Amino acid sequence: MKNEPKILTPEEIAKIQNERTLSDAELINGGAGYTPSLHNDGTRFDLENKQIRELEKEMGESKQESPSIKLPKNPEVIKKLKNKLEEYKKRLEKIKNSEDYNNEYNSPEEAFKKTADVYYKIKILEEVLTYGEVKTYEFLSRFKKRDEQFNIEAFENACGVIKDYCDTGGANNIKGSLSDLSDNVK
């Protein structure tokens, strides 16, 4: 039974928590800190860019290149990507005009959460169509610096969807592909 998870003793758990607390304290002294989040317990631990680079260097990951999304060379696919961009823009407008979105009880965080996925798909696709390539780590960094709110799950999903559209025409996307593109917003 090699694959069974090891059950930690209370002493081992306490030791791990102490080590984590000391590590967090060291990072906080260097500029990191807890910030509000819509996920988990309502907070997340954010590191300074300098700290991230130092940790990457320590872990030997500094040489890892940012995954990129590249514009295909096929003019027909590029045309379909442009149509997809317009579809996303219509979808975003439809969400923003919906009663659910404009509900007076929605907080700004809830409203953002409803649009994040489509918003990121629009921004990534605009970047790919304009510059021919998006380096996802650098693009992520720009978003986090510029936008007050950020949803990593929606961003990662948007990157995966747009990359699949560029690489395969959407063959791996569950909800659609470039071949079944329509002007109707569902």
List the helices and strands and how they pair.
Blueprint: H1 10-29, E1 33-36, E2 43-46, H2 49-59, E3 68-70, H3 75-96, H4 108-131, E4 133-135, H5 136-146, H6 152-168
Antiparallel strand pairs: 1-2, 3-4
Summarize the structure.
By secondary structure, this protein is mainly alpha-helical.
Question: Could you characterize the architecture of this molecule?
Answer:
15% of the residues are buried. This protein has helices at residues 10-29, 49-59, 75-96, 108-131, 136-146, 152-168; strands at 33-36, 43-46, 68-70, 133-135. It folds into two domains: 10-59, no CATH class; 68-180, no CATH class. It is mainly alpha-helical and 186 residues long. The protein is globular and about 60 Å long. The strands form two sheets. It has a two-stranded antiparallel sheet. The protein has six helices and four strands; from the N terminus they run H-E-E-H-E-H-H-E-H-H.
List its traits.
mainly alpha, 186 residues, 4 strands, 2 domains, two-stranded antiparallel sheet, globular, disordered C terminus
SSE string, helices as H and strands as E: HEEHEHHEHH
Number of strands: 4
Mean pLDDT: 77
- CA-atom Rg in angstroms: 21 Å
Give the quaternary arrangement of the chains.
single chain
Question: Count of helical segments?
Answer: 6
Q: For the record, give the distance between the C-alpha atoms at the N and C termini, rounded to a whole number.
A: 49 Å
Number of discrete domains: 2
Task: Quote the beta fraction.
Answer: 5-15%
Helix fraction bin: 55-70%
